[in-house]
Structures are given as structure tokens and as C-alpha cells.
């Protein structure tokens, strides 16, 4: 891995929190992700399932974590099952984790080779009444491929039909949404790498540069700072492309006078950052661009203040909508009649700001978090309002990552990344 080792105490704490919410006499099993094929012998780069990483720190394919807090013997309470290195694997791929290395990473003493999993599970199931399966129940999830986890669930159901079933996901949705200090530090590190990338491209951007050239500068800076690369598919959208919310072609020329909306950020140690800035290709915003930019910035600043413990998601979104409506009236994009005659289910401001303001973030860019639960301290959110004006040929979004505090305003993990018009213009024209 490119990232520095993470103290195993983080994963020990995470397991302790999870098992405290398990039912008596129950087992929980977590599988790594598959390596997904492309064609012929090509595969996509391996990306670890975030749940097994959260609970163990193991960042290797063909791994299984088993938790059984009420097991009759101490050595059965938590176990790792790993792919065993062979001489062939060591030569062609590089050696896999040894048992000693896996213990150092995870804090789990009992490490077995994967081929022993079914035999050991059979013994443990004779003691257990319930098994926790780890289905993906994220509100944004769209699953079209059969995962390693899904294959395990089918296999388990056919072999142990008499056992009760419980779900890991509701526990993890809550636990993963509230970050430990070590996790916040990792997200902060990802934000710092993102800052280096953003500062790198400010003096680089000029009329006639290609969007993909900006993308190349960013990935260069990210990887040289121990990131695997982008935390998500990068958006480098110049001109009217900024009005396509998930524009990812990044293949157009950046023209003089246009703006570039860049929704692009680095990951670090599987933790995400999530940045958006909108900058002028020519190094100066026009008066109209500046007016819209500052309106978006004011919405972002006011929305950030509202992220407090006890706040409900639905109420937060409604309040941000009111602030955005006021700004759109000031920009003469809406008039009073638009607001008076608006559909309550799709308010007038949605014509120019059609997406949400915030989402949880952490190990996943759109991280776990139950939107019906009140916000809590140490949750990490994006704040990303935008105004999109196709008829004027530009769109503006501004986004930072913040940590909810027990008291006071949220802490902005991106507070050192340039955001004010004057600072961006100054750095672009240095």
C-alpha cells in the first residue's frame, strides 16, 4: 500500500463497538471485494470492501473477517482468514500478508488460511444461533453484479438454513457515520493532498488547455503524495459542461472567458476527500460570474453553520432551500411570482440548484449515515451548493468537507484551500 501504516488500535475500537451491538450467540462474517474482470486477462484495480477494512484494516483480496463475541473459547472470538502466499504468487504478484503481518495490521491474533474457513465455520455454527450477513443497504446503492458477499450469503443459506439471520448494515450505518479521531485525521490528510493538487493547477490553467490536462496534473500530485489517486471519478467541466452534474468526459478545450467547475479530490488510506471549486479559465471572473460565485459561497457558509448536533436532515435541506431562494431572487434568476406559485414538492430554486447540499463522507465518498437520524458530533459532511445556468453558459458549485462539533460551528477540513474570488485570481495570475 502507498499509505503509511494505520495504528491497529483504530480497528480494535471499531470491532469493540460493533460486537457490543450484536445479539447473544451470534456470528458476523465480512468478505473482501472481488477483483473484477474487464476482458481477456485484464482486471480492474482491487478496491477493498470498506466494511472489512473498517473492522480490520485488512486491504487484501480474498479475505474474511469473522466475529463471535460469545464463542466458548477466546481464540474463536475474532478470526481472520487470508489467502495463503505460494512461491508462484510471490514471484508473479508479490507476497500476500503473513499471519504476523495481519496481526500487526488488525490486532487480531487468530489468523487462518482461507482454505480452512468452511471447516472452522462449521464448528462455530454448532455453538451459534444467529449469523449477521453484510448486505449493501446504502440509500444510493445500485447493485448489478453478484459480489463475493452475495455469493457467501447464498452458500450460507443453503448450508445452515436453521439459523436465524440478522443484518450488519444497520449497525455499521450508525457506527461508520460517527468518526473516531484517527479517521478524521486520515480524512484531513486526504484533504491536504487535495489542497496540493488544487494549488498546483491554479497557475497551470490558461485558455486552450484541455480538461484532461488538468486531470493529469491533479493525479500526478495526488499519487506523489501517497494517494492511490482520485477518491471518485473526477469532474473537470468547462463552460456549459458544468451544467451536467456528473460530467466525466473531461475532453474539451477550456476557452477564454469560461469557468471550469472541478469536482475532484484525493483519497488516502481508503478515506475520501470531496472538493469542488469553480475557477476562471482566463484568471479573472466576469462581474456576473463573480456575483453568482459569491452567492453560492454565501449559501455554503450559511449552510455550514447549520450542521449541528440534533439537526434533522429534512429540516436542514429545507432551510438551505430558503437561503438559496433568496440568493436566486437577488441574481434575478427567480422573481416573486416564481416563488409564490412554486410546487412544494419541487420548489422554484430547484430549477437552478437541483441536487442536495450535503452528504456523509468518510471511507466512501457518499459514506454510511442514516438520514432520518439527528446529526451528531464527529459526523463528517460535505457542504456543496451550486447554481447552474445553462442559458448563460456556466455553472458554479463550491464544496468543502466539515466535521460536526459538540459545540460551535463545524470544523472545516478544507479551510486552507483557496475559496475566495480574490485569492483564486491572485494565485492564477502570480
Written account of the structure:
The protein is α+β, with helices and mostly antiparallel strands and 430 residues long. 34% of the residues lie in helices and 16% in strands. It has helices at residues 9-19, 50-56, 87-92, 99-106, 117-125, 148-159, 169-177, 181-201, 211-223, 287-305, 313-330, 336-340, 421-428, and strands at 26-31, 37-39, 42-43, 64-67, 78-82, 111-113, 130-133, 164-167, 235-238, 259-263, 267-268, 271-272, 276-280, 380-383, 386-389, 394-397, 400-403, 411-412. The strands form 6 sheets. Strands 6-5-4-1-7-8 form a 6-stranded mixed sheet, with helices on both faces. Helix 1 packs across helix 2 and helix 8 (181-201) packs across helix 9 (211-223). The longest helix has 21 residues, at 181-201.
What's the SSE blueprint?
Blueprint: H1 9-19, E1 26-31, E2 37-39, E3 42-43, H2 50-56, E4 64-67, E5 78-82, H3 87-92, H4 99-106, E6 111-113, H5 117-125, E7 130-133, H6 148-159, E8 164-167, H7 169-177, H8 181-201, H9 211-223, E9 235-238, E10 259-263, E11 267-268, E12 271-272, E13 276-280, H10 287-305, H11 313-330, H12 336-340, E14 380-383, E15 386-389, E16 394-397, E17 400-403, E18 411-412, H13 421-428
Helix pairs in contact: 1-2, 8-9, 10-11
Amino acid at each position: 500500500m502507498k499509505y503509511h501504516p494505520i495504528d491497529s488500535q483504530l480497528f480494535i475500537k471499531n470491532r469493540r463497538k460493533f460486537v457490543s451491538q450484536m445479539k447473544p450467540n451470534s456470528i458476523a462474517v465480512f468478505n473482501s471485494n472481488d477483483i473484477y474482470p474487464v476482458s481477456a486477462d485484464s482486471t480492474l484495480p482491487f478496491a477493498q470492501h470498506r466494511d472489512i477494512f473498517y473492522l480490520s484494516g485488512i486491504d487484501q483480496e480474498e479475505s474474511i473477517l469473522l466475529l463471535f463475541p460469545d464463542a466458548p473459547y477466546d481464540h474463536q472470538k475474532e478470526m481472520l482468514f487470508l489467502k495463503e502466499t505460494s512461491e508462484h504468487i510471490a514471484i508473479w504478484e508479490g507476497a500476500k500478508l503473513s499471519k504476523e503481518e495481519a496481526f500487526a495490521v488488525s490486532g487480531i491474533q487468530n489468523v487462518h488460511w482461507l482454505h480452512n474457513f468452511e471447516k472452522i465455520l462449521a464448528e462455530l455454527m454448532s455453538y451459534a444461533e444467529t449469523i449477521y450477513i453484510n448486505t449493501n443497504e446504502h440509500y444510493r446503492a445500485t447493485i448489478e453484479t453478484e459480489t463475493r458477499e452475495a455469493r457467501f450469503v447464498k452458500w450460507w443459506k443453503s448450508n445452515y438454513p436453521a439459523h436465524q439471520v440478522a443484518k450488519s448494515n444497520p449497525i455499521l450505518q450508525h457506527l461508520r457515520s460517527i468518526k473516531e479521531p484517527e479517521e478524521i485525521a486520515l480524512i484531513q490528510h486526504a484533504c491536504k493532498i487535495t489542497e496540493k493538487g488544487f494549488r498546483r493547477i491554479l497557475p497551470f490553467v490558461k485558455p486552450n488547455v484541455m480538461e484532461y490536462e488538468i486531470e493529469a496534473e491533479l493525479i500526478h500530485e495526488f499519487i506523489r503524495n501517497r494517494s492511490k489517486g482520485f477518491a471518485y471519478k473526477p469532474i473537470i467541466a468547462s463552460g456549459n459542461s458544468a451544467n451536467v452534474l456528473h460530467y466525466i468526459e473531461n475532453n474539451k478545450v477550456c476557452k477564454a472567458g469560461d469557468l471550469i467547475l472541478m469536482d475532484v479530490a484525493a483519497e488516502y488510506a481508503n478515506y475520501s476527500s470531496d472538493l469542488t471549486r469553480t475557477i476562471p479559465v482566463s484568471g479573472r471572473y466576469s462581474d456576473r460570474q463573480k456575483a453568482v460565485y459569491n452567492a453560492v459561497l454565501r449559501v455554503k457558509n450559511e449552510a455550514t453553520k447549520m450542521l449541528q448536533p440534533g439537526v434533522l436532515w429534512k429540516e436542514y435541506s429545507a432551510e438551505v432551500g430558503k437561503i438559496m431562494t433568496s440568493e436566486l431572487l437577488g441574481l434575478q434568476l427567480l422573481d416573486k411570482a416564481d416563488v409564490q406559485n412554486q410546487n412544494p414538492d419541487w420548489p422554484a430554486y430547484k430549477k437552478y440548484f437541483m441536487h442536495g447540499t450535503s452528504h456523509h463522507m468518510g471511507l466512501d465518498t457518499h459514506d454510511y449515515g442514516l438520514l432520518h437520524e439527528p446529526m451528531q458530533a464527529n459526523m463528517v459532511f460535505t457542504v456543496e451548493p451550486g447554481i447552474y445556468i445553462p442559458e448563460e453558459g456556466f455553472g458554479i458549485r463550491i464544496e468543502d468537507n466539515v466535521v460536526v462539533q459538540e459545540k460551535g460551528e463545524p470544523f472545516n477540513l478544507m479551510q486552507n484551500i483557496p475559496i475566495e474570488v480574490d485569492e483564486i485570481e491572485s494565485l492564477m495570475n502570480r
